[in-house]
Amino acid sequence: MSNPSSPDRILIFDTTLRDGEQSPGATLNVEEKLIIARQLARLGVDIIEAGFPFASPGDFEAVQRIAQEVGTADGPTICGLARATKADIERAGEAIQPAVKGRIHTFIATSDIHMQYKLRKSRQEVLAIAPEMVAYAKTFTDDVEFSPEDAGRSDPEFLYQVLEAAIAAGATTVNIPDTVGYLTPAEFGDLIRGIQENVPNIDQAVISVHGHNDLGLAVANFLEAVKHGARQLECTINGIGERAGNAALEELVMALHVRRSFYNPFLGRPAESEDPLTNIDTRQIYKTSRLVSNLTGMFVQPNKAIVGANAFAHESGIHQDGVLKNKLTYEIMDAQSIGLTDNQIVLGKHSGRNAFRTRLQELGYDLDDQALNRAFLRFKELADKKKEITDWDIESIVNDETQQAPEHFYLDLVQVSCGDNSRPTATVIIRTPDGQELMDAAIGTGPVDAVYKAINRVVDIPNQLIEFSVQSVTAGIDALGEVTIRIRHEDRVFSGHAANTDIVVASAHAYLHALNRLYAALQGGKALHPQRDAAPVAASR
Ligand code: KIV
Ligand code: ZN
Question: Is the CB of 49 under 6 A from ligand 1?
Answer without folding.
Answer: no
